[in-house]
Amino acid sequence: MEVKREDMENENEFGSITRREMLAGSAIAVAALAITKVTGSEAAPVAPTVTPVESAGLTFNVNGKAVNLEMDTRTTLLDALREHLHLTGTKKGCDHGQCGACTVLVNGRRINSCLSLALQHQDDSITTIEGIGTPESLHPMQSAFIKHDGYQCGYCTPGQICSAVAVLEEIKAGVPSHVSADLKAPMVFSNAEFRERMSGNICRCGAYSNIAEAAAEVAGVKG
Ligand code: FES
Ligand code: FES
């Protein structure tokens, strides 16, 4: 049998299948696939599985009042306060624990409420800026912020005030900071102590000096 030159040139390394034969085989495979699609015999696409949202009940105390909430288990304390209880004094800045705008007190200690799930606070006592003082009855720290111009736009201010109130309590309780020289000596308020302890509360307006002066007045010392 005469072997065509073209077939000889296209013969692959296995020596048995020519390019022409391979192309013919591929065409048959593509045609078979097309027929499968047209006839609908291909398996139907599987819909992605959606995990149902779980909800749970929470009982805690907010600004002196007992509160019961039913919520998505993924809700942060910040969103529970703002979206469920409409306590919008607590601000959402970064939602990542970097700015301190969401600071509230939990059992007297300050935390970033954006980093905490609400359901972790069963039976806890939460204090937000609305519970620190009211326009009719300001907390001394709120009055001092006004007197010393401790804010400009005011967005960070609720967090700054909650944090400053807790800082004075931490110093009174003898909790040391990174700038405390003697861990065994009683802690005393100083500008350096205050600024170090407030380093998690960012103010884009740069009202830091005025905030420190306000806190120094409340602490009863010169800043
Ligand atoms: Fe929570 Fe920024 S919003 S730390
Ligand atoms: Fe504007 Fe602090 S007063 S961010």
Question: What would you say this structure looks like, in words?
Answer:
The protein has 223 residues and is an alpha+beta fold. The protein folds into three domains: 37 residues; 78 residues, Beta-grasp domain (Ubiquitin-like (UB roll), Roll), CATH 3.10.20.30; 87 residues, [2Fe-2S]-binding domain (DNA polymerase, domain 1, Orthogonal Bundle). The protein is built from eight helices and five strands, in the order ααββαβββααααα. Strands 2-1-5-3-4 form a five-stranded mixed β-sheet, with helices on both faces. A hairpin with a 2-residue loop joins strand 3 and strand 4. Helix 5 crosses helix 8. The N and C termini lie far apart (107 Å). 30% of the residues are buried. The structure holds FE2/S2 (inorganic) cluster (2 copies). The site of one FE2/S2 (inorganic) cluster has 12 residues, from loops.
Write a short abstract of this structure.
By secondary structure, the protein is α+β, with helices and mostly antiparallel strands. The protein has helices at residues 5-10, 19-39, 77-84, 129-132, 140-147, 157-172, 191-197, 208-219; strands spanning 55-62, 65-72, 103-106, 109-112, 125-127. Helix 5 crosses helix 8.
CATH architecture of the largest domain: Orthogonal Bundle
Q: Identify low-pLDDT runs.
A: 7-15
Bound molecules: FE2/S2 (inorganic) cluster
Residue share in β-strands = 5-15%
| Full CATH superfamily name of the largest domain | [2Fe-2S]-binding domain
> What is the subunit arrangement here?
single chain
Largest sheet: 5 strands, mixed
Helical fraction equals 25-40%
Q: What is the overall silhouette?
A: elongated
According to CATH, the fold-level topology of the largest domain is DNA polymerase, domain 1
Largest sheet, spatial ordering of strands: 2-1-5-3-4
Q: How do the SSEs run, as a string of H and E?
A: HHEEHEEEHHHHH
State the separation between the terminal residues, measured CA to CA: 107 Å
